Amino acid sequence: MDNNQEPEEATDRSELLSGDGKNSKSVMCQRCGSKVLSPGIATFAEKELFLPSMRKKSGLSATESSVDGDTLTDHWLVGDMFDFENVGFTNDVGRIKYLICADCEIGPIGWHCLDDKSTYYIALKRVTHA
Amino acid sequence: MDPRYDIPRRATAGGSGGSANSSPALGAQSRRRKMPPRPADFKLQIIIIGSRGVGKTSLMERFTDDTFCEACKSTVGVDFKIKTVELRGKKIRLQIWDTAGQERFNSITSAYYRGAKGIVLVYDITKQETFEDLPKWMKMIDKYASEEAELLLVGNKLDCETDRIISRQQGERFASRISGMRFCEASAKDNFNVDEIFLKLVDDILSKMPLEVPNRELSNSVLSLQPEPEVPPELPPPRMRCC
């Protein structure tokens, strides 16, 4: 997926990436500041993933097919759940576990498929960097 | 039994190994990280058990409010959390399993207990029956948990002091009859003692570890005292939880 990015976004991204393609800053919860990833732990990855909305009304549900949410492509990727500083895993929704903030439980901030034990995604747009 | 959420034997991902320093890279231009991020020194599995409604889940949370989380919790629910604490200069990753929704004694399978290094047993100081259930929970612990598992009894809902039925002494007495069991009272609502609970438990777990390896506790030159804790062969089964 080599989509051309908006120039502005590209600039933002280079601030977040170190030379080796890892996150140069800490990845934190937007709401409570809980640290999700330490710098240098995750690699940048592009993958189209659907994450249900973080807003209240759209609960996720295993059965409901019309869930409100966003398809996001920019993610931080780690290969082990113990690479996270703090993160919560929801119960299974189909073969998916959504990742949430471990402290305030806002989310989903990320995505994990049970069929691939070595990929855990955190969506850049659902977290802050500091 | 699905082994997918066992503590992995070893991270397969990059980024492990190396020693201290987790300071952010100074610029996006740096070609290479000279200091790999510091990996966790220990990984520990902790389970929270106790009768229905005692506040197990809220012990896992520092706070909640009513945005997404409510919707998320009521429909899907939180399975487990990874939390990192630093203690005695060590970085410890906790994998915390909250068994809410499976409060019948026999419904929590042995796999939960087996891998646990720490077990938090919770009752509600305002509900007699949750205290009376404790021996049944202890039976499960005796049957399934590792003998080395650290036990902590928590009398929760200290914020409801006026409705208290179980005295502090009763809790203390119960804990004192079980060798190595610690006791404290907490209020998840006010966050009173909640962080301390986990730190205390982890501290107890760590204090046992030097016995298994040469005692180098005071030497900070040793980052990793011990290889990762052994892994339970099986994993807690998928949760059935009503929504």
Automatic annotation (TrEMBL), chain A:
GO biological process per UniProt: post-Golgi vesicle-mediated transport; protein transport; small GTPase-mediated signal transduction
Keyword Coiled coil (UniProt): no
InterPro entries from the UniProt entry: Mss4, Mss4-like_sf, Mss4/transl-control_tumour
Any one Gene Ontology cellular component term annotated for this protein: cytosol
Domain of life: Eukaryota
SUPFAM superfamilies xref list: Mss4-like
Keywords from the named record: Acetylation, Guanine-nucleotide releasing factor, Metal-binding, Protein transport, Transport, Zinc
A Gene Ontology molecular function term of the record: guanyl-nucleotide exchange factor activity
Function comment: Guanine-nucleotide-releasing protein that acts on members of the SEC4/YPT1/RAB subfamily. Stimulates GDP release from both YPT1, RAB3A and RAB10, but is less active on these proteins than on the SEC4 protein. Might play a general role in vesicular transport.
Protein name: Guanine nucleotide exchange factor MSS4
Native organism: Menidia menidia (Atlantic silverside)
Lineage: Eukaryota, Metazoa, Chordata, Craniata, Vertebrata
UniProtKB/TrEMBL annotation, chain B:
Domain of life where this protein originates: Eukaryota
E.C. code: 3.6.5.2
Enzyme class: hydrolase
Alphabetic keyword roster: Autophagy, Cytoplasmic vesicle, Endosome, Golgi apparatus, GTP-binding, Hydrolase, Lipoprotein, Lysosome, Magnesium, Membrane, Metal-binding, Nucleotide-binding, Phosphoprotein, Prenylation, Protein transport, Transport
Entry's localization field: Cytoplasmic vesicle, Autophagosome; Golgi apparatus membrane; Lysosome membrane; Recycling endosome membrane
Bias (Pro residues) ranges: 229-243
Membrane topology: Lipid-anchor
Cofactor(s) annotated in UniProt: Mg(2+)
Region of interest called Disordered, as start-end residue ranges on this chain: 1-37, 224-243
PROSITE patterns: RAB, RAS, RHO
SUPFAM superfamilies according to UniProt: P-loop containing nucleoside triphosphate hydrolases
Pfam families attached to this UniProt entry: Ras
GO molecular function: G protein activity; GTP binding; metal ion binding
PANTHER family per UniProt: LD44762P (PTHR47980)
Family that this chain belongs to: Belongs to the small GTPase superfamily. Rab family.
NCBIfam families (alphabetical): small_GTP
Name by which UniProt lists this protein: Ras-related protein Rab-12
Source organism: Menidia menidia
Lineage, opening ranks: Eukaryota, Metazoa, Chordata, Craniata, Vertebrata
